[in-house]
Amino acid sequence: MYINQLLDAYKSAKNYVQDKQIAHDLGISVQKLSGIRKGERYLTENEALFLAKEIGADTESVLVYLAADKAKTYEAQQAWAKIAKKFNGLGLSTISMVCGMFALWLGDLKVAIAKCALYVLC
Fold it and tell me: Residue 109: is it exposed, middle or buried by C-beta count within 10 angstroms (0-12/13-18/19+)?
């Protein structure tokens, strides 16, 4: 799980020895953090972004890997991992990545892409 790696990197960067120190910084209970470590619970986007910013990790990648960790099936996890690799390799911004995902989700691809293009140009 990628989120455990993120938590470990934060723990190391802060020279922490216990997870309860991370939980305190995030404003969550030690029980929630334990559930996150076990894969039973998940960080929120805000919590993941906080950790990413504190250690200098790419926030876009962190959000993609958070989604991959939250995916219920192996197939979905693999799809998210491929998305992360594709977008990281192309150097696309968060805006273009989000626009692409919304375009696929909304159904009418041409209209969604046009709206995203207009948004990016503004």
Answer: exposed
CB atoms within 10 A of CB 94: 13
13's tokens: 């960067």
CB 85 within 8 A of CB 79: no
Q: What confidence tens digit (pLDDT) does each residue in 13-45 have?
A: 999 999 999 999 999 999 999 999 998 999 999
What band does 1 get if pLDDT is binned at 50, 70 and 90?
Answer: low
pTM for the predicted model, two decimal places: 0.66
Nearest to 45 by CA among 8, 79, 83, 94: 94
Continuous H helices in the chain = 2-13, 19-26, 30-38, 45-55, 59-70, 74-90, 94-106, 109-121
